[in-house]
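call fold(seq) -> tokens
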Amino acid sequence: MSFRCMATLCVLLLGVSCDLPAAPPNIVLVMCDDLGWGDTGFNGNTVIKTPHLDAMARAGLKLNRFYSAAPVCSPTRGSVLTGRHPYRYGILTANSGHMTPQELTLAELLRKQGYTTGHFGKWHLGTMTKTIRDSNRGGPKHVAHFSPPQNNGFDRCFSTEAKVPTFDPMLKPRGKPSGNGWNYLQDRAAAVPYGTRYWDQRGEVVTENLEGDDARVIMDRAVPFITQAAEQQKPFFVVVWFHTPHLPVVAGPDHAKLYAEYDDFPRNYYGCITAMDEQVGRLRQTLRDLNVADNTLVTFCSDNGPEGQAKTSPGLAGPYRGRKRDLYEGGVRVPALIEWPAKIAAGRVSDYPAVTSDYLPTILELLGVQIPTDRAIDGASLLPLIETNVTERPSPIGFQHHDALAWTDNRYKLINNTRKRKRDPNGKPLRPPVFELYDLLADPQEAHDIAAEHPEVVKRMQTELLAWQASCKPVDSRQ
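ret:
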């Protein structure tokens, strides 16, 4: 029963108000797309300006060892909403599978607790339309993957199926523009449609206020939703999934000027991140202006490591090995913050291993809602970290991406370093995986494989990993 229903029942039956617990917290989950661990000031970047994220880090809890559930976007997003590893619900990589009706999402669970729910930005957990060609898979050819946010517990939506340019998100230059991005369009009339759309909760295309910075376009929808909920004294659950800085990156004129000394690609990359950072600041200021900031839990993270090769791409994985699509730390260790003034003291920093799958059990526990028992939940509640500053995770974190596997506990990481192994005509791998072992406390850069020195640790962790992998029972992503 929700807090609001309990209060109403007390008034009806007893004629008096009840002595209820404090109002349930509002929850805002913010995520970037392909933002590297080293792309923010609070993680040491001295070039990209992220003053609002840096202020959020100073005001709350900075998680130095926070992981995306996968090294690519769609699987990580599903882990946020289900608390489950992607191989349990069938979204194994980007542009595959969809959120099925059998899954329970945070939005569905919180709506039962009286929350109003909104999704704003990139969805990428199913298509948005059955009728017209849209984005990567939308339209008649992929009807089986139709699963928009409103079918998964969200009352209000302003959502795209997948990526869009980070400035003028519905447009691109004529011809064959670079996949990395381009300089902002000075003549929009000469541009052509990018090929995707924003959709609302009615399944209708949004056509107004789509020019300029994409992060601002998204926040222009999230802020009114939050404002309305706060004015109605209704708890809100808001998911803001920025497209920034997924390719193609485009910075508007004001933000491009901040990085005028750089070449086009890094200038647009850096500029779009700073533009997004301003919208995080706008969100935080909105919560303060509405007097709901103290009782609002806001999280920030990325969905995986930075895109491209380190030598040619501006995104930074910090000191860590690997990038997007890798299970080495650079592919899955991402920047992360939690701000909740009522419960989290300013200036906290933790090396506790956490993962995007932890959001669901954390939120359910803080609300006193039982975690579903009819399905495996891979995440672990972060309330002990929030309330008592524990330092050790109760259970390891498992990863799988194609044939690559990893198993991470508080100290060690076991990993086989192949994404896709060669197979015979029957689909059987030609060679068994070779596992490496790293001591992440002593060697977070994963520079020294110590598997030969600790065969007992390798054996134990491999047994645990393979048992966990078997329990996931991968779902055919075509269903």
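Confidence is low (pLDDT under 50) at residues 1-21.
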